[in-house]
Write a structure and sequence with these properties.
The chain is of the alpha+beta class. Helices cover 21% and strands 27% of the residues.
C-alpha cells in the first residue's frame, strides 16, 4: 500500500499579512506567524496581563519617549520573510511614528511572558529571536516565578541563559546603568 506524502504549507509574511487584511482571521482572534506557521494564541489569564503591565511600566521608565527607543506592547516584529511574532514587549530603536508605515525588523530587547505559552515561547520564539540577532530576550516564567535572560546570539542560538529569581535584579544590555528587580515584574 502506497503512503501519500503530505507537506505543510509554510506561509510567508506577505501571505500572512494579505490574509489578515482580507479578514481571514475573525475579529479579536490572536494569531502570529513564526517560521512559516500560523499559531493561535491562547487567551491571557489575569496573572499574564498583570505581569505584562508591570513589565511595560518598568521598561517605559527606562526608555521614555525621548530615549531613542520605543517600548511596543504585543505588536508585530517583521522578522525575515516568514515570521511576524508579536512579543509581549519589544524595545525597538526610534520613535512610535517611525513605524507608522511598517513594522520594526529588529529589537534590542524582547520580553515574553509565559504561563500556558511556556513551551511555545521557549522552544519557538526565543530561538527565533536568537536567529534574527536580537541581542537580548527575556522570558518571564510565571509558573516558576523566574526571569530567564537570554543573551549573546551566535550562530542562531543564545550563548548565555541566566535564571533570575524574585530577589534578583536585571540590567538590560542597552541600559547597563539601570536595573529592574525581578519582583517588580511578577504579579
Amino acid at each position: 500500500m502506497a503512503v501519500a506524502t503530505v507537506e505543510t504549507h509554510r506561509w510567508t509574511r506577505e501571505e500572512y499579512e494579505r490574509l489578515a487584511a482580507k479578514g481571514f482571521f475573525p475579529p479579536g482572534k490572536r494569531v502570529e506567524l513564526v517560521e512559516g506557521v500560523i499559531y493561535d494564541m491562547t487567551p491571557q489569564k489575569s496573572p499574564h496581563t498583570t505581569a505584562l503591565h508591570l513589565a511595560q511600566d518598568a521598561l517605559r521608565a527606562l526608555f521614555p519617549r525621548d530615549s531613542g527607543y520605543t517600548v511596543r506592547c504585543q505588536s508585530p516584529l517583521a522578522l525575515g520573510s516568514d515570521s511576524e511574532p508579536e512579543p509581549d514587549l519589544a524595545v525597538v530603536p526610534g520613535s512610535i511614528l517611525d513605524y507608522r508605515d511598517h513594522h520594526p525588523t529588529t529589537a534590542q530587547l524582547v520580553v515574553e511572558i509565559a504561563d500556558s505559552s511556556l513551551f511555545h515561547d521557549r522552544k519557538r520564539k526565543i530561538p527565533l529571536y536568537a536567529r534574527c540577532g536580537i541581542p537580548e530576550s527575556w522570558l518571564l516564567n510565571l509558573i516558576r516565578g523566574t526571569l530567564e535572560v537570554y543573551r549573546e546570539p551566535v550562530g542562531g542560538a543564545y550563548q548565555t541563559r541566566i535564571v533570575l529569581h524574585a530577589g534578583d535584579s536585571v540590567c538590560p544590555l542597552i541600559r547597563p546603568d539601570c536595573s529592574i528587580r525581578v519582583s517588580e515584574l511578577l504579579p
